[in-house]
């Protein structure tokens, strides 16, 4: 158990003892004069604050993961290795890193305020195996000046990692372990237990503690309301809560598994995830955001819910009192409310390993990508011969909670997916919900999408 | 020499450009009147070594390594954090303000009132008080202890609901057009006429670095690091506001060495800048006060919304004969607080032979006042005008390009239209038909651009300092700021060109008011205003060096030339580094001046009127191709092309980046950006980047620009600014492409999926 919050920054040990745990990594860096990392939104949208962390890539190796430092509380990086724009270098000391050189040569900056963030994103991409395509990699960074073309050109121009690259050498060793932490400073405490039992005990003792998974909802909220939380309980070091297991006929996903990990490990097994995840936020957010956090926020437009509803997932909920199972269809009890009791934790998400014959996830937002859904729909259909044996039509953004259009589902059972069944299902679904309008979409548009997405489904999957 | 007096008889130069798009050369000989002692004019025939090259941005390295220090980054020992406390009501009066409890809170060093009791509250977020303390948390806690009471009045945050707004129903202005005999006659006689109403929403500047700064006092001397696009303006504003405390303009220094964007919103210190200085004074410690994203969206100005109605007619030849325009601008509180009001500008080059009327009215509302934003008034006005033109062309059975060619009075753009159409494949794209009932449909559109501001001499004239040191390095310094447009690179390349030395030897510095005065970065005037002074400064410094070299070589200084890294006589060139050793420990220092723009005369000695090509306006045009998903209503821009008059290109990559960035900002305005206000609370509902969307990397279409370099003969350089000109056309081009794709115009920006579906629905119903 560590009492301080020391970590490695650009290869040097830094001690954060005495720093209030409410402080974000970004504010810690900037407050200590390391101002290369920028602040521009404090809500995970712009990527100006991007930094890279060394995380595990299997047991023996590691990789660089970029995250939004505005959404990472300082104690979360206790024991970690963090790189910022100031720490990058080329083959020799004093030489520019290849991505920095590329940004300079391609004219990737105008005002330059976004540049360090892009540099860090491109830095992590430089070493990634395989390298993601440049456009997806930078999807979590905003630039108001350049129009992005030069930045993309810079990204695409960078050659393979050179022999002797000092940053590559680091990746040949394991990542630092994520260990238990407990400390207090500035009138606030932070605890990151290493076992579920300890976490449950802490949760029972202090149900009011801010419960932190990836922090991509919670820290945004904290940054915006500015309130000082006195007690933090982080779930980030509990092996039981993260990772994916195949148990009998089910996939069991730890509640603290990140979207990045789910995509890597389950993308090919659960096609609905493969469709959902690239549409979910940005790579930087997906590196931290967890499936459990998404469910516990219980947002009506959260993207996990429709998919999990369509797949008939069940949730494992744990407390010192024991464990219970909740079907995901009973999880959402109202606008931003879930069935979770004050002393409980969401422990795992169970998905039956019986892939539907056809599955589609559609996300409709104001812009094509990198946006919160106005309406989302997840559809799963199981066939028996040519006719439908079971159907799930689940929506987000059309009611106070994510919901299924059960009447329409029932109408399809025993029938073919043809024009007639589409017409009937559309009619049944169209009137099922009374969505409200908000800044993302009007009520009418949402209502129209309920039926429109079914048409889209038929168009794409009808045999 | 008779410095400052015009050269007798003037100098002949060639202005214009070589033919583009298979069209003839547009070169004209003109006589201009440079001042004695100024650097001789460059023109269309000048060959440059560094100017126009693809040299890197000189501070690109500082930016890519994180070493560039923005105001937001300045940190001093003992520095406190400041915050503005803001009104929660949209309209009314401040009736009580109690700061005492906040002052007693731990860690709080200063609490000040920013609004007097009894004064008017103008919008949600109007500044009431300010606090400085040791950290953000304590400041936030103290803010909650400030007790402000208001007498609230009924507010209106939607300009179209204000008392002076016209009646709009179903998107159409109901009020009849006021009579106008000539126009009415022309409209009645027109072969084809059209009448339609257009709307745009409030757009925020959304600079990545927010407003604010760091203030630090030493006795009565104030230093302020301010995120601004007008260092001298901020100094003047602060000195004026602080004069009752005995502060003199001479003892205020403003720094803005790196600025994270401005786009027109950062011309002043603003209430946040002043609060920062007052808090630092009160607390006797440096204070940093930077706004958060919500404050940035809601209190630092915006591009006003617009409501535009146009009616016009064409004759049998497709020539516009009548053009009637009325516009209304949603300019926020009273419309006159700092900046441009709600103006919606209108192109005038299509209607030179038509009967024209233009009327504009500002509509006040209880929201944050508008400020200039990149080409104030233009993107909204051009959206209305250019979409209207496409609708009218469709009615008249004319291709939109053909329609433009018949009406556009500007020669430069006539050439640009043809070049652009060819490059973009206009004819083929317009001929392509979408399959009936297809889910994805494509369309192609175009729009024009114009910007009419030139460089100016400044009053008193802008200056530049050029120093040459004995080690061969050169400095070029301005007190004006580089907000990302590349001013430092411009200084570097022009100085290098004038001295014939590699740009590596030149160090440019911008953004400290201790250096010579220069313009605000606005209206695309900075580069053309300062470039001639940069040359002048280097030219004068060179003359001093020539003096030394001449003496050393025993040659008449008038015979000394420099170039290719040498300076000397033709027979005895000295390497630059050797020559500079003659200088001694004190550098050569020269102060260049921005003279007035040349008066240009034609071969008959007649002064060139402003309407002649290359004289006053900058032309451009843009093309866009979109794909519309008719099921979800999503619009994706697939490809864009910009053809842009950019004066003499000084730094190619930087100039291109300006144009590309403007095109994406235009795309963003066309498809995403919209401030959404809550009528009840008067608060912005999407005051963040999560719900106020600006274009991201994945919105990026295939982009191409043609930098149309034109020697305009305005001054010794012939440069133009590129902030505004390329940002005029893009939204209109996108809107026209959507019109082409779905066959119905979307007359209300942004073109969001719900509007597209509604339009398709309406079309189906006929
Ligand atoms: C820029 C940006 C883009 C986004 N885009 C999307 C998007 O496209 N789609 C989408 O659905 N969401 C999006 N989100 C929201 C967010 O990323 C997701 O909801 C994410 O999955 C939340 O997970 P987290 O681990 O970060 O949650 P946290 O912020 O850590 O927690 C969220 C809430 O859940 C509680 N909680 C977390 N884990 C548990 C647990 N195991 N047991 C009990 N309670 C728990 C926390 O106490 C907190 O109240 C976006 C957020 C940002 C900042
Ligand atoms: S500051 Fe914008 S994402 Fe962190
Ligand atoms: S260069 Fe200004 S925000 Fe990217």
Write the layout of secondary structure elements.
The complex is a heterodimer of chains A (463) and B (766).
Chain A: E1 6-9, E2 12-15, H1 25-31, E3 50-57, E4 61-68, E5 81-83, H2 98-106, H3 115-127, H4 134-137, H5 149-157, H6 166-170, E6 181-185, E7 188-192, H7 196-205, E8 210-212, H8 218-225, E9 231-234, E10 244-247, E11 250-254, H9 259-266, H10 271-276, H11 283-286, H12 291-297, H13 304-310, E12 314-319, E13 322-327, E14 332-334, E15 337-338, E16 345-352, E17 358-364, E18 375-384, E19 387-396, E20 403-404, H14 406-412, H15 419-430, H16 443-461
Parallel strand pairs in A: 1-5, 7-9, 8-9
Antiparallel strand pairs in A: 1-2, 3-4, 3-5, 6-7, 10-11, 11-16, 12-13, 12-16, 14-15, 17-18, 18-19, 19-20
Helix pairs in contact in A: 2-3, 2-5, 14-15, 15-16
Chain B: E1 11-17, E2 26-32, H1 60-64, E3 80-86, E4 92-98, H2 100-104, E5 108-113, E6 120-121, E7 127-133, H3 136-143, E8 147-152, E9 168-169, E10 172-173, H4 181-189, E11 192-200, E12 212-218, E13 221-226, H5 231-241, E14 252-255, H6 270-283, E15 287-290, H7 293-299, E16 305-314, E17 320-332, E18 355-364, H8 378-396, H9 400-407, H10 411-424, H11 426-431, E19 440-451, E20 463-468, E21 474-478, H12 487-499, E22 506-510, H13 526-553, E23 561-563, E24 566-568, E25 573-575, H14 576-580, E26 588-593, E27 618-629, E28 635-645, H15 652-671, E29 702-708, H16 730-742, H17 753-765
Helix pairs in contact in B: 8-16, 12-13, 15-16
Flavin-adenine dinucleotide binds at residues 43-45, 211-218, 220, 235, 255, 280-281, 285, 288-290, 292-294, 296-297, 302-303, 340, 345-346, 372 of chain A.
